[in-house]
Amino acid sequence: DVKVTQSSRYLVKRTGEKVFLECVQDMDHENMFWYRQDPGLGLRLIYFSYDVKMKEKGDIPEGYSVSREKKERFSLILESASTNQTSMYLCASSNPGQPSYEQYFGPGTRLTVT
Amino acid sequence: AQKITQTQPGMFVQEKEAVTLDCTYDTSDPSYGLFWYKQPSSGEMIFLIYQGSYDQQNATEGRYSLNFQKARKSANLVISASQLGDSAMYFCAMKSGGSNYKLTFGKGTLLTVNP
Fold it and tell me: Do A45 and B102 touch (CB under 8 A)?
């Protein structure tokens, strides 16, 4: 089974802090993704990566950056956390070798910025 | 631009009955794929079923089937013989626009299965 893990289930940070969210997948997937999920808005793509050190902006990249130094690990960075970044953050991975490219998700990190 | 619309914010169904969750999509790309995901209260998104735009038959996976009507641009999820464990948020999603990486998600439907 594909396993995608995220470093924390719940996180509370203060405004202005630098925040790191870590995601690790164990199936050698090429692609990794970061989404945020807010009530009534569904999932929105922040950034994705299709290879080590490669990244592309998603629909809402402002205020975020990412890092992918190893294939299995994809980090989301909030340079200076703000209260409007309070949200559920979901990491996912997928394999281009699968015809449907379905994405496998981690358990999510619920981030609260106070 | 790609768009997914789920018009049912919430649905209720009795245990053991079938339920249909609606999804309509909009894309100008002739090649696309449609997904359904389940999100229980624990938060993890679980992949349920996939339909490619060129697939001739409707996709089925156990109790899940996808009612794909291409001309109407709809991809409804049918859950047969509902179980209490089916209570969850359900998301329809689409990949298209030449990208196999990016998914566009609908806003979701909260399904409650009553005993």
Answer: yes
Strands B10-14 vs B24-26: parallel, antiparallel or unpaired: unpaired
A67: enclosing H helix or E strand: strand A64-70
pLDDT in tens, B15-71: 999 999 999 999 988 889 999 999 999 888 999 999 999 988 999 999 999 999 999
Greatest Cα pair distance, chain A, in angstroms, is 43
Amino acid at B99: S
Q: What would the two tokens of residue B8 be?
A: 């049912």
DSSP assignments along A69-89, one per residue: EETTEEEEEESS--GGG-EEE
Question: What is Dmax (Cα atoms) for chain B?
Answer: 44
Cβ–Cβ gap A42/B108 under 8 Å = yes
- Give strand pairing partners of A93: A32, A104
DSSP secondary structure letter of residue A17: -
Residue A92 contacts B, CB cutoff 8 Å: yes
Signed CA dihedral, B103, B108, B109, B112: sign only? positive
* A61 interfacial to chain B (CB closer than 8 Å): no
- Minimal C-alpha gap between B106 and chain A (Å): 6
Q: Token pair for residue A66? A: 């990412």
As a whole number of angstroms, the distance between CA B37 and CA B57 comes to 20
pLDDT digits (tens, 9 = 90+) for A14-51: 999 999 999 999 988 889 999 999 988 889 999 999 88
